[in-house]
Write a structure and sequence with these properties.
Blueprint lengths: L3 E4 L9 H10 L5 E6 L11 H8 L6 E6 L7 H6 L4 E5 L6 H10 L3 E6 L6 H4 L7 E5 L15 H10 L4 E5 L4 H10 L3 E4 L1 H4 L3 H17 L1
Parallel strand pairs: 1-8, 2-3, 3-4, 4-5, 5-6, 6-7, 7-8
The protein binds D-xylitol-5-phosphate and zinc ion.
């Protein structure tokens, strides 16, 4: 399985997000990861569907949108209209998780379900039939640049065993070394924010590509 690289613009200069998306469009990466935060589920507020829509015309790559918000069911249509391809919601905020995942699919987007480091893998087991992707957070959501939590790798292994054909995405603290570990544990999508933007994105992503290729070949 080819590993999907999904750089996040969270660590880009927010005054120059268009340039960041254009840099990713030209680089060797597969999806563009967009972190939407509401100031409630997580303390920071980032951007919403209107900003995503404004970035859409700058790239042909799939937009992988990670909603760290409460009441995600109220935002499905707005993100669909903004041109998002994959919409991921958090299990922790959603008492009707199965239904909301179905609503995402019915709108024409792929549906993802995310779990925090403190949430067991079992939280997604009964909704796998309604999801295309499981996002295993490897930091507590809200900020870029945190340290990868190695204890979460066991959940990656578990989810991969339950869901051999789903995308299993890791997000948080991913760099060359931790991407390798995540791929070895069964992840096929790696998100990288501060790693990508702490240097020249194209060079950083080329190094990440080499690392994940080695890991999936071994
Ligand atoms: C964190 C976000 C991540 C963030 C990761 O809550 O969900 O997508 O961009 O940043 P790094 O890669 O710096 O840990
Ligand atoms: Zn994210």
């Amino acid at each position: 399985m080819k590993t999907i690289l999904a750089p996040s613009i969270l660590s880009a200069d927010f005054g120059r997000l268009a340039e960041a998306v254009l840099a990713l469009e030209a680089a060797d990466c597969d999806w563009i990861h967009l972190d939407v935060m509401d100031g409630s589920f997580v303390p920071p507020i980032t951007f919403g569907a209107q900003a995503v829509a404004a970035l859409r015309s700058l790239s042909r790559k799939p937009f992988d949108c990670h909603l760290m918000i409460e009441h995600p069911e109220t935002q499905i249509e707005a993100f669909k209209e903004a041109g998002v391809d994959r919409l991921t919601i958090h299990a922790e905020v959603c008492p009707h998780l199965h239904r909301v995942l179905q609503q995402i699919r019915e709108s024409g987007m792929s549906a993802g379900v995310a779990i925090n480091p403190g949430t067991p893998a079992a939280a997604v087991r009964d909704v796998l039939e309604s999801a295309d992707l499981v996002l295993v957070m490897t930091v507590n959501p809200g900020w870029g640049g945190q340290k990868f939590l190695h204890g979460c790798l066991e959940k990656v292994r578990q989810v991969r065993e339950w869901a051999p054909n789903h995308h299993v995405e890791v997000d948080g603290g991913v760099g060359v070394e931790t991407a390798r570990l995540a791929v070895e544990a069964g992840a096929d999508v790696v998100v990288a924010g501060s790693y990508t933007f702490s240097g020249e994105p194209a060079e950083r992503l080329a190094a990440l590509r080499r690392a994940v290729c080695e890991a999936s070949a071994s």
